Amino acid sequence: xxxxxxxxxxxxxxxxxxxxxxxxxxxxxxxxxxxxxxxxxxxxxxxxxxxxxxxxxxxxxxxxxxxxxxxxxxxxxxxxxxxxxxxxxxxxxxxxxxxxxxxxxxxxxxxxxxxxxxxxxxxxxxxxxxxxxxxxxxxxxxxxxxxxxxxxxxxxxxxxxxxxxxxxxxxxxxxxxxxx
Length: 180
Hints:
The protein has a single domain (about 50-175), classed as SLC41 divalent cation transporters, integral membrane domain (Tetracycline Repressor, domain 2). It has helices spanning about 5-35, 35-40, 45-70, 80-105, 120-145, 150-175. It is globular, with a radius of gyration of 18 Å. Helix 1 packs parallel to helix 6, helix 3 packs antiparallel against helix 6 and helix 4 runs antiparallel to helix 5. It has about 180 residues and is mostly helical. The N and C termini lie far apart (about 55 Å).
């Protein structure tokens, strides 16, 4: 089967998009189940979109790089090497730096009424989200490639939905760990 045929793209994406929708619904259910916590600390809900977006972006970047490396043969499933290590640490570093910069920006909003706890919760949740996004993106790229699927058709939709769940869970975990 040709790598970029219409039929292949549609057949690979159909199930993946259904699974992605189900995962996104799960993130909504997690929010619903924690409604009492959200109502007590309503600022948490404002952090959901940026943490999900940033995590999904990091995951998509790493997943895209992994897909390209797998197609080019610079990375092979089951082998660890310099290219894999560079992509892993590059994703982790860029994610943590992005969440740190955003956390610092949130500290600057204190005069506008943003509580002080928002920045450390967002940063810690971002570290969790980065770890999830990078590890899962790499894993999904390898799994898809080994199954004969195009990682470009699999990683981006799934990682964005997984990061929807990861972001919500990371925020609640960070808030709990920091006593919020």
